[in-house]
Amino acid sequence: MSDTGSDQEPRQTGREPVFMLPAVVTALGGIMLAIHLATTLVLDNVGLYQLTLWFGFVPARLLMPDQIPGGFLPLIWTPFSHAFLHANWEHVIFNTLWLVIFATPVARRYGAIPTLVIFLLTSAAGAVAFAATTLPSVQVLIGASGGVAGLTGAAMRFIFQPVLVGTDPDTGQRVLLGRHLASLREVFTNPRSRNFSLIWIVLNAAVPLVPALIGQDIQIAWQAHLGGFVVGLLLPPLFERSWQHE
Predict the structure, then answer these.
(1) pLDDT of amino acid 149
(2) What's the CA gap between 215 and 174, in Å, rounded?
(3) How far, in Å, CA of 165 to CA of 168, rounded?
(4) How far is the C-alpha of 119 from the C-alpha of 103, rounded, in Å?
(5) Which residues contact 191 (CB under 8 A, 6 or more apart)?
(6) DSSP letter at 194?
(7) What is the reported pLDDT for 155?
(8) What is residue 130's three-state secondary structure?
(9) Are 96 and 35 in contact (CB under 8 A)?
(10) What are the distances in angstroms from CA 103 to CA 29, 139, 159?
(11) Is the CB of residue 57 less than 8 Å from the CB of residue 82?
């Protein structure tokens, strides 16, 4: 199934594979898995430390560049590159599965480049939210969670909305136009998108309370999740285009 720039289901033309993903989703997931496999097989602990130091996002570089190798320079790429590094197999597999679920409808509606742009911009937004809530302590952000959360937020703008139907100007036949792009107000008045969004936001916002409840810290970058999701909600109108029939 190729990227069509629409979330409309393709016409059945015969026997098709059971699983078929947009190329950009396959590429992003494949890159994340390949990088983690390569780091697991090739790098020792020193190499993993150096990789994380130079490609993970370290907000403390802003305040103490002289104390961290590379100084300010890695801040150019690490707001994006951190999304391709993961702590363990559970981390990368979970993010890849979440990517497949929510990046797929975004890619089918907007195509490969907008999907990649949304992923990268919301990864950076997640990094900014992480920096805003962890400075001045020295912490490192890795993982695609911010970008995947951003694609989830983008998908909330249309996946629970009604399908639009129009008329082909040449044949007069009724045709599916894809799903309505909801306003932010409509996202939170539609019961399904509202409930999903609110549950997702509340669960992530509650993460800082978990250590007090269970007596131990958990390594979840909830700030990146929230930052990516919020910015993802805002981005879809920038990529909406006239793929719909009048």
Answers:
(1) 96
(2) 59
(3) 10
(4) 9
(5) none
(6) H
(7) 96
(8) helix
(9) no
(10) 10, 28, 11
(11) yes
CB 92 within 8 A of CB 142: no
What proportion of the chain, given as a percentage, has pLDDT over 70?
82
- Which distant-in-sequence residues (6+ apart) come within 8 Å of 82 by Cβ? 55, 56, 57, 123, 127, 141, 142, 143
- The two three-digit tokens of residue 183, written as one number: 């306003």
Distances (CA, A) of 191 to 8, 125, 198, 201: 22, 27, 10, 15
Token pair listed for 174: 């009724």
How many CB atoms neighbour CB 92 within 10 A?
22
Please list the rounded mean pLDDT of every run of 10 residues in the chain (246 residues): 42 50 95 96 93 95 92 95 95 95 95 96 96 92 96 95 74 72 93 94 84 66 93 94 45
User: Which tokens hold the place of 228?
Assistant: 């990516």
What does the domain layout of the chain look like in residue ranges?
Answer: 23-239
To which residue do tokens 């990088």 refer?
35
- Which architecture characterizes domain 23-239 according to CATH? Up-down Bundle (1.20)
Which tokens is 136 given? 């001045």
Cα–Cα nearest to 78, from 31, 143, 154, 132: 143
Burial group, residue 66, by CB count within 10 angstroms (0-12, 13-18, 19+): exposed
pTM across the whole model = 0.85
8 A C-beta contact, residue 157 and residue 233 = yes
